[in-house]
């Protein structure tokens, strides 16, 4: 069978299956289990209404259970076994890992990422949102800034590899240095700061996201409160920091936390830029180093990442619920 | 304390859309001026121009003898109360009121004293540490007024401050504003509303805006008793003044008009012999009609009645040549008039005459 036919068939079976499922399960519920025909019509209709949401949720719950809950439990169990998975070592993988220099570097770098990337992206996003708010060509500027969001992490990294390239004929940074007569450098090999050069790629990509959400939030601020502040004598900075920002504080938190856990998961950028060399390792890339070589260690790292992400995520969901 | 002078003020949006033109208005210090007009007449725009929130595109605005066209709002000595209250939602009542003073870098003691004084005046003391969302509509509006008082401005600007309140609160807050004015007799206030009752009860003078300009300025009863134009006559008073077309048949200190509907109206408005045969509209307020069997100037069948208890409204079919149905407002309760032929008369002193939209009094 040709792949095209296969694909079309899959779509038909998938979509048809969904429609069929809802149709059939509803008929089953309304006609067979709780038919409204018998004496207690009202009660049966009420019951069917109570069951129906679960009917619709069932496929999603099953899929999430299979692909999210099971892997979490499975990974945790795997992290308690040795490299080949045949010997129970308890928390041995974790103990070993925390004692290792590479892991601690990754943990520290990850800490830097979590502090600076969300802060940078939210800050620039807010700045752009505010500056483009009343501009005629603001929407064009916003589209341009939003565009990196559409590029994959690997694609974006490749672009920045060119920007950072050590060869002055390729890299713009070294081209500029060359113009002023300075010797070329490889930004990826400057210790400590290379982390920030890599982080900047993530900031560059996430600024668009922050900008879009915060721009909408800024527009949602009642115009009168700003006019009242103008009459009260506030200057543009005071209006921004004392009237506007506090009113969108909730949204800022949502954006910040969303970028935070995006950051905690990012692996591709580091992998593409340096492969984790020159002390730029972060937890996900550190995990990838061990994947398939030592699954016990890799799953232990994965679990550490999850433990770090979960509280941020809970906070994020709570805040988002309050906002929306 | 502060008088305002608007000279030939105009507003154009984007160079083409003209919303206000040739506004000339002198407001004396300590006056309470109300801007009224149909929606879209530019009354709020004019207020916002005085506030400095909208640019004045023509003419000059003077406050206290000083041209302020290009003076930023905060330095004009004005404070504004918005229809939507415009409280800062993330600040407590206290901070809302203190904000302007904090911006002005006033001392802590001074701020506290001003806020407490305003809070006391508006009975807001128990709510000072609450957020606006924990207040009722009336309380929020009081905070908005308090925010204005704290700044101790020379001119208060109110932009439909009562529109978001329910009927009972509106009356109560209206009285509060009137008391506020009495407590600060030297402060000038400009008040925008579309509510006639607010305009009539609060204003020292009312400015009726229409057709991008001022239709008439005057004391409330002056506008009611001697409206300059059909527009003002119909805008002030509810239900609106009846207009009956006719032709002048007798002139002198009293004017006689033969109505298109057949009756004859007599008005105390004087006319000259040259007016003989002039086509006019006779204006009579619904409340100025009395039922008359003899010498009725209008006779018609009552199509509908509205009994409000204190008054009864009689709706008649539109008179010949008139656009709107005739309405009479009779004091007290009148039952069983529906379907009857009724004659209406009016005292000559209450009969207005308009030629081409303008009152004969103002020729």
The largest sheet of chain A is: none
Q: What is the mean pLDDT of chain B?
A: 89
Mean pLDDT rating of chain A: 88
Q: Which chains have the largest interface?
A: A-B, 17 and 26 residues
The fraction of residues in strands of chain B falls at 25-35%
CATH architecture of the largest domain in chain A: Orthogonal Bundle
Stretches of chain B where pLDDT is under 50 for at least 5 consecutive residues are none
Order of helices and strands of chain A: HHHHHHHHHHHHHH
How far apart are the first and last residues' alpha carbons of chain A, in Å? 48 Å
Give, in order, the helices and strands of chain B.
Answer: EEEHEEEHHHEHEHEEHHEEEEEEEEEEE
Shape of chain B: elongated
List low-pLDDT spans of chain A. Answer: none
Q: Strand pairing plus helix content of chain A: what structural class? A: mainly alpha
The strand count of chain B comes to: 21
Rg calculated over all Cα atoms of chain B: 24 Å
Number of strands of chain A: 0
User: How much strand of chain A?
Assistant: under 5%
Spatial order of strands in the largest sheet of chain B: 6-7-8-3-9-10
| Overall domain count of chain A | 2
Oligomer: heterodimer
């Amino acid at each position: 069978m040709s792949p095209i036919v296969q694909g079309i068939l899959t779509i038909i079976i998938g979509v048809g299956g969904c429609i069929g499922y809802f149709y059939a399960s509803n008929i089953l519920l309304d006609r067979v289990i709780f038919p409204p025909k018998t004496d207690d019509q009202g009660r049966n209709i009420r019951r069917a209404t109570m069951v129906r949401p679960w009917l619709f949720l069932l496929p999603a719950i099953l899929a999430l259970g299979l692909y999210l809950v099971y892997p979490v439990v499975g990974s945790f169990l795997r992290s308690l076994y040795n490299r080949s998975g045949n010997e129970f070592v308890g928390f041995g993988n974790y103990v070993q890992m925390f004692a290792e220099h590479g892991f601690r570097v990754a943990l520290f770098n990850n800490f830097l990422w979590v502090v600076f990337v969300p802060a940078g992206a939210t800050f620039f996003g807010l700045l752009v949102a505010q500056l483009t708010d009343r501009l005629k060509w603001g929407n064009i500027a916003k589209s341009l800034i939003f565009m990196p969001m559409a590029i994959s992490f690997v694609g974006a990294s490749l672009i920045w590899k060119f920007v950072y390239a050590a060869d002055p004929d390729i890299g713009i940074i070294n081209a500029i240095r060359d113009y002023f007569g300075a010797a070329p450098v490889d930004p990826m090999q400057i210790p400590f700061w290379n982390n920030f050069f890599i982080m900047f790629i993530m900031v560059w990509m996430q600024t668009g996201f922050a900008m879009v959400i915060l721009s909408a939030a800024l527009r949602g601020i009642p115009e009168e409160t700003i006019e009242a502040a103008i009459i009260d004598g506030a200057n543009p900075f005071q209006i921004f920091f004392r009237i506007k920002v506090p009113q969108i504080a909730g949204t800022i938190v949502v954006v910040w936390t969303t970028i935070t856990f995006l950051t905690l998961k990012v692996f591709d950028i580091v992998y593409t830029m340096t492969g984790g060399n020159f002390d730029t390792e972060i937890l996900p890339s550190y995990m990838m180093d061990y994947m398939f070589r030592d699954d016990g260690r890799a799953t232990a790292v994965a679990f550490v990442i999850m433990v770090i992400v979960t509280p941020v995520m809970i906070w994020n969901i709570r805040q988002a619920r309050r906002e929306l | 304390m502060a008088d305002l002078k608007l000279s030939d003020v105009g507003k154009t949006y984007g160079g083409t859309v003209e919303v206000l033109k040739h506004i000339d208005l002198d407001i004396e210090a300590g006056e309470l001026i109300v801007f009224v007009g149909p929606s879209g007449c530019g009354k709020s725009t004019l207020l916002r121009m005085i506030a400095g929130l909208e640019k004045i595109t023509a003419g000059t605005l003077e406050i206290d003898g000083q041209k302020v066209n290009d003076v930023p709002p905060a330095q004009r000595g004005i404070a504004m109360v918005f229809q939507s209250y415009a409280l800062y939602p993330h600040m407590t009542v206290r901070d809302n009121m203190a904000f302007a003073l904090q911006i002005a870098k006033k001392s802590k003691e001074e701020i506290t004293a001003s806020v407490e004084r305003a809070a006391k005046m508006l009975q807001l003391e128990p709510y000072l540490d609450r957020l606006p969302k924990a207040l009722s509509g009336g309380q929020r509006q009081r905070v908005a007024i308090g925010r204005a008082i704290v700044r101790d401005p020379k001119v208060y600007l109110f932009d439909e401050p009562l529109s978001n309140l329910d009927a009972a609160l509106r009356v109560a807050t209206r009285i509060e504003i009137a008391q506020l004015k009495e407590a600060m007799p030297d402060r000038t206030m400009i008040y925008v509303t579309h509510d006639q009752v607010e305009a009539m009860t609060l204003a020292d003078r009312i400015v009726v805006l229409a057709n991008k300009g001022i239709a008439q300025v005057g004391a409330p009863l002056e506008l009611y008793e001697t409206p300059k134009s059909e527009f003002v006559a119909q805008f002030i008073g509810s239900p609106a003044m009846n207009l009956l077309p006719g032709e002048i048949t007798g002139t002198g200190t009293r004017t006689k008009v033969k109505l298109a509907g057949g009756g004859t109206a007599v008005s105390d408005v004087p006319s000259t012999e040259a007016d003989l045969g002039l086509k006019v509209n006779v204006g009579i307020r619904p409340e100025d009609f009395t039922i008359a069997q003899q010498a009725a100037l209008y006779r018609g069948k009552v199509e509908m009645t509205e009994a409000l208890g204190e008054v009864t409204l009689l709706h008649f079919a539109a008179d010949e040549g008139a656009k709107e149905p005739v309405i009479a407002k009779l004091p007290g309760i009148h039952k069983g008039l529906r379907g009857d032929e009724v004659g209406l008369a009016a005292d000559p002193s209450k009969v207005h005459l308009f030629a081409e939209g303008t009152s004969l009094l103002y020729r």
